Prior knowledge:
- It is a single chain.
- Strands 1-2-3-5-7-10 form a six-stranded mixed β-sheet, sandwiched between helices. A four-stranded mixed β-sheet has the order 4-6-8-9.
- It folds into two domains: 6-201, 2-enoyl-CoA Hydratase, Chain A, domain 1, CATH 3.90.226; 205-253, Lyase 2-enoyl-coa Hydratase, Chain  A, domain 2.
- By secondary structure, it is of the alpha/beta class.
- The protein has eleven helices and ten strands.
- The chain starts with 5 loop residues before the first strand and ends in a 6-residue tail after the last helix.
Amino acid sequence: xxxxxxxxxxxxxxxxxxxxxxxxxxxxxxxxxxxxxxxxxxxxxxxxxxxxxxxxxxxxxxxxxxxxxxxxxxxxxxxxxxxxxxxxxxxxxxxxxxxxxxxxxxxxxxxxxxxxxxxxxxxxxxxxxxxxxxxxxxxxxxxxxxxxxxxxxxxxxxxxxxxxxxxxxxxxxxxxxxxxxxxxxxxxxxxxxxxxxxxxxxxxxxxxxxxxxxxxxxxxxxxxxxxxxxxxxxxxxxxxxxxxxxxxxxxxxxxxxxx
Length: 259
């Protein structure tokens, strides 16, 4: 499929999705939102894919919503809500994908760009990346999930500070507070990504999907209910997929399992 605002490719069991509006710092507009939805559906349908990598083209990961479009719909509650729902539907699709989502962040990652990152599972950031919510700096509020996901990710007080002040974090600071998995020099982003992907390629896609689902669902449950969810997930996965038995046999045979 040919896209105008994104690029999608597959290599060695990994899908690579690049936001490709560099002239607009990869800002979200309706076309990009629609193409992102199509790309995520394609990735979900390809059972050979074990991870999805999201990057930005040019000097930014993503600067958030395209303000030119936002101005067009600002006086129409219905259109404004439709735009926000489309963005949030995509972020929910990311969380629902049964594979790990890795965001590779460089340059600016602001507002909606941060909200996209929050819907990913793992984040590798350049040390000099600029990451922040920004909405409050311009009299706005988040509309793509920052008020909900950021406190869950880094805690209530840190999230409130970042959202209310609009302060930007470097990649190093993002890693220190748990917003990113790690921060590396910009010229080492590819190496750090490949080191992570090498560990994911050998895993069971089905198993990773069950793990991701249990973790994400459990965030909204009391501990006792979360444990019950994990038990049920363990039993269903172990009795419906051949991968757990293959893993046990590989351990006994002292070999790498084949998934």
